[in-house]
Amino acid sequence: MKKNVLITGATGYVGRRLKQLLIKRDDLNIRLMVRDKNKLDLAIHAKEVQGKLQIVEADTFNPKSLGIALENIDTAFYLIHSMGGKNSDFEAKDRKSAENFRDACIAAGVKRIIYLGGLGAKESASKHLLSRIETGEILSACEDKIQTIWFRAGIIIGSGSASFEIVRHLIHKLPIMITPKWVNTITQPIAINDVIAYLESAITADIDGNLIVDIGTSAMNFKQMMQETAKVMGLERFLIPVPVLTPKLSSYWLILFTPVPLKMASALIEGLKSETILLNDHAQRYFPTIKPMPFNQAVKLAIDEIEQSQVLSRWCDSSEDNSCDLTEFDSPAFVGESAGAVLRDVRKFSIGKVSTDKLFASVCSLGGENGWFAFNFLWEIRGIIDKLSGGVGLNRGRRSTKNLRIGDAVDFWKVADIRDGKRLLLAAQMKLPGKAWLEFDIQSERGTMVQTAHFHPRGLLGRIYWYSMLPFHNIIFQMLGRKIVEHAVSIRPIIRF
Ligand SMILES: NC(=O)c1ccc[n+]([C@@H]2O[C@H](COP(=O)([O-])OP(=O)(O)OC[C@H]3O[C@@H](n4cnc5c(N)ncnc54)[C@H](OP(=O)(O)O)[C@@H]3O)[C@@H](O)[C@H]2O)c1
Q: Which CATH number describes the domain made up of 3-307?
């Protein structure tokens, strides 16, 4: 009998990678639970059409949808948290989400929940870690009704993981670094491939009752991680310890030089204030065949993936807010409420003899290492202004130079919609006095590409911002569209997956 397995968080950093592995297994029926189907790769949709997996849209705050997602499931992965975006009340949300999920699993007759949380003791936990611990406790609270295998991992090393991106960017950009006290805190990182291997093994592991499994490779501190990473990258770096750098100052330092936003940088530093080491030997005892790879091997793998543009998932994949969902933009409520208030910069460009495929590929190659085709320095300045005002800036780049999917970050934009050969919609994630989108619509029947910047200003400040930017927009947007068409002539059609 094939086991029926549900993966939640299938659009997140860990979930995307787990899904990629499990769909290859013939002995499992895989169902993905997502909030927005559109964020999954085209290849996954194709597998659904071929009947090789199921996709269900559900939200842990909607118990009815959970009931449907969990029907006939034997084992359910819980790879969800509520810390993204502007959630200030993430602890309460995490509690409710876990309670709803556990209760729905019990009602549906699920036999095993597999959860991945954070590593560390409750007594010294940061509030983010505490919330992860509480989630584990809630999921495991009804042992007589449902079994929970709870993995606890510290810093995950892999292409696109937030902690690794921090280390990589610091090493890449700064030959000399002054380092605060927290870089000496001992922790046990783990390669993303090893995390996935543990999660996979837990589906069939012969274990009775609840179990907490701490996972990680050899203990080291953040400073050693930076030194090892520099070695793998072939760079010489000098770290100068100073006792005066407060966590707050360190966070600002991190947001200036790395892609992570202030909230994430603060959470990481908060987490590094106290030791996070394995508190049990259950990994070895119950999963003896998995030998976590050494740190430098994990770094090498991550860098190879980045260099080959093979990054499967990134820390910024999951929605930070609703901006990924087109519904808000298209909904009558939004259009009605803001009728007349949405300011637009619309430009039309003649496509000439360029094929639609090539033009679309050109549109979809914007950003990251490819740049913005003209006035890159102005985009850079905008990115720095954004970083300084607490935004995401340009550092996030793109997951891949070759392909794009809904939910991908592209510098300070997020892909809100892609319709092959037709439309790309980017939602702005930079700090703005309003909401903004940049849309490219290929109207091949008219031989035109329509490029529209939409702006929904917030109050007077929003309007002042828009009108003061008009001279820049005139230059940048006009050149952008023109260059996209020019670039299309020599580009190879894009691959989406
Ligand atoms: N990444 C790490 O470095 C790391 C390290 C140690 C432990 N962990 C643990 O691993 C687990 C997964 O983390 P991650 O990094 O993969 O997270 P992530 O990339 O932020 O993804 C979170 C996922 O949860 C989904 N989600 C959020 N709220 C939901 C809801 N109400 N209903 C349904 N789905 C919801 C998101 O869907 P949308 O796409 O719709 O937003 C997304 O797929 C977490 O428990 C985390 O503590 C991660």
A: 3.40.50.720
